[in-house]
Amino acid sequence: MTIEITEIQGTGACSIGHAVGDRWEVDSALVPAGICGWAYAAMLPFLQPLRFGGSFPWEAEGEALVCCPDPANPVVFRLRVTD
C-alpha cells in the first residue's frame, strides 16, 4: 500500500514539513518512518480495511482520500493498494 500527499489546503504548508508528493510504503501495521502520527491516526480506519481487501463506496476501488486533523492546513493523503 502507498500513502502519498496530493494536496495541502489552507496556506499550503504543513506544520511538520510534509510536502505534496511525499510518499510512504505500508507493508505492516507499523507506522511508516517520518510520517506525522496525528495524520497516521486519521488514516488508520481507512488503511486497515484497504490492506485486507475492503473498499469504500464513495472512493475508487483500492483507494481512499484522508485529511489530517489540522483544521487550518489539512494535508490530503491518497491511500492506494499496490501490487
Describe this structure in words.
The chain has one helix at residues 37-51, and strands spanning 2-8, 23-25, 63-67, 75-80. The chain has 83 residues and is of the alpha+beta class. A four-stranded antiparallel beta sheet has the order 2-1-4-3, covered by helices on one side. A hairpin with a 7-residue loop joins strand 3 and strand 4 (75-80). The model has no long low-confidence stretch (mean pLDDT 94).
Question: In angstroms, what separates the terminal alpha carbons?
Answer: 8 Å
Q: In order across it, which strands form the biggest sheet?
A: 2-1-4-3
Topology order in helix (H) and strand (E) letters: EEHEE
Shape: globular
State the secondary-structure class: alpha+beta
Which percent range describes the beta-strand content? 25-35%
What's the count of strands? 4
Number of helices: 1
Low-confidence stretches: none
Mean pLDDT: 94
User: Helical amount among residues, as a percent range?
Assistant: 10-25%
* Main sheet specs: 4 strands, antiparallel
Tell me the radius of gyration.
12 Å
